[in-house]
Design brief:
Two copies of one chain form a homodimer. The first copy, chain A, contains eight helices and 13 strands. By secondary structure, chain A is of the alpha/beta class. In chain A, strand 9 and strand 10 form a beta hairpin. In chain A, helix 4 packs across helix 5 and helix 7 packs parallel to helix 8. The longest helix of chain A is centred in the N-terminal third of the chain and has 13 residues. Chains A and B meet through helix 1, helix 5, strand 5, helix 6 and strand 6 of A and helix 1, helix 5, strand 5, helix 6 and strand 6 of B. Strand 7 of chain A pairs antiparallel with strand 7 of chain B, so a sheet runs across the interface.
Chain lengths: 252, 252
């Protein structure tokens, strides 16, 4: 049986893609992914003779099904995702689809090739905001009830977690981020630093460091990652820093 | 002024280190790190003519101070950490030390080169356990009061976060993980899957998938990462999977 492997490309630049990911792509006969991600690795695919299947954003399940079919038909297949494919990516979906097949028709599970996750890339752009315990929450309520997302925000706020928000805002969904701000303000000071990184590690990368009071006034979209500091996070000379210790902040 | 850059090497194998990290190391005159991490990149350092400063685990602050001194003295310097240097790594400490210097004596901040984080590497070994909102908590109480760590465990449990534990257990600290188990059991079923990955992506890598009821009976040490599933996580054919949706589990 041929193998199917899910690959995290990292945040965007080919400089952030691991050699393991590159080799897996080079060895594949079929490369499947959202067209934007396929473009990130254009130089690896051009004139390679590989079959490349790029589809639009909302066709995730179809895309993964197609990939599993290709592998089941005997072709070495990779599915590519940006960031780490194991975080809100394609890893789970592909693995579920593989395991749903009768054993005799199952492609071999080539595993997940871990990549640099978007949250780590965004943090590196802001300074060092993620040095202590953190929570990662997606504000997209397409697959998760908003009640549950809200509860998680509350728990993250109450537990003084550094809090990273994926999918913070879309054209249709603009109110949720305001609710996050209100919940966080119940537990944290209005001047808590909040970093917003858009298109981390890509050409159009932007970063803003704001405060819990004001951050929702900044440009935030589906390519943004928002990192809300904990009670110890501070900003110095434009860098956002969360100290590792709760006791040693002043006596380095 | 020379530049100081903090680099995440990824989980262990040189195959998981990004080209950006490799280039930064190649361009450095001085490479500073915990000796175990220095060993991971031996082949990049041998006969390179670089000054290599390796120190023991407990000398973190001294090590970072030394690195900042070298950069301030005019040498291009990199500090290497395993995983992502921005997660419980050296990024924050080095940045803090740079910014504490008077401006005229400050080396240039070369930034953090993000790496594949240990939690992403461990997840890839287990299957796809991290596909939904998650919390990352270190159980080390050297720099954080145990009360706060316990509170965070409680919040993560109550919010049904997939929960990743760094530094889960050491020779001296064996009871905390039992307390985590007890807190989690108040909110989650005893058969919730728990994955334990030790030395992810290194030669001696091991993985175990257990349950919330039983996982503390398994071998867990300071090289282990523990991932506790959420209420939807399941195990099939030895793989741990957290579905992305709360509604679509049954109808892929």
């Amino acid at each position: 049986m041929a193998k199917i492997t899910v690959i995290g490309l990292g945040p965007g630049s080919i400089l952030d893609m691991t050699p393991r990911a590159r080799t897996a792509i080079e060895q594949a006969e079929v490369v499947v992914g959202y067209t934007t991600y396929i473009k990130l690795i254009e130089e690896l695919l051009a004139d390679s003779g590989k079959q490349v299947i790029g589809t639009g954003m909302m066709q995730e399940i179809d895309r993964c099904r197609l990939a599993v079919e290709e592998a089941a038909a005997g072709k070495e297949t990779v599915v590519v995702s940006s960031g780490d494919a194991g975080v809100y990516g394609m890893a789970g979906l592909v693995l579920e689809l593989v395991l749903k097949r009768p054993e005799k028709d199952r492609p071999q599970w080539g595993g997940v090739v871990a990549g640099v996750s978007a949250v780590n890339a965004a943090a590196s752009v802001l300074g060092a905001p993620l040095m202590h315990d953190f929570a990662v929450i997606s504000l997209s309520n397409l697959l998760t009830p908003w009640e549950l997302i809200r509860k998680r925000i509350q728990m993250a706020a109450e537990g003084d977690f550094v809090t990273a928000l994926y999918n913070p805002k879309s054209k249709k969904r603009v109110e949720n981020i305001e609710e996050v701000r209100e919940i966080m303000l119940k537990f944290r000071s209005p001047d808590t630093p909040v970093g917003i990184v858009t298109a981390a590690s890509r050409e159009k990368q932007t970063k803003v460091i704001s405060t819990l009071q004001d951050f929702t006034k900044e440009e935030i979209n589906m390519f943004s990652l928002v990192i809300i500091g904990n009670s110890q996070t501070y900003v110095q000379d434009g860098w956002m820093i969360t100290p590792r210790g709760y006791e040693n902040k002043e006596n380095l």
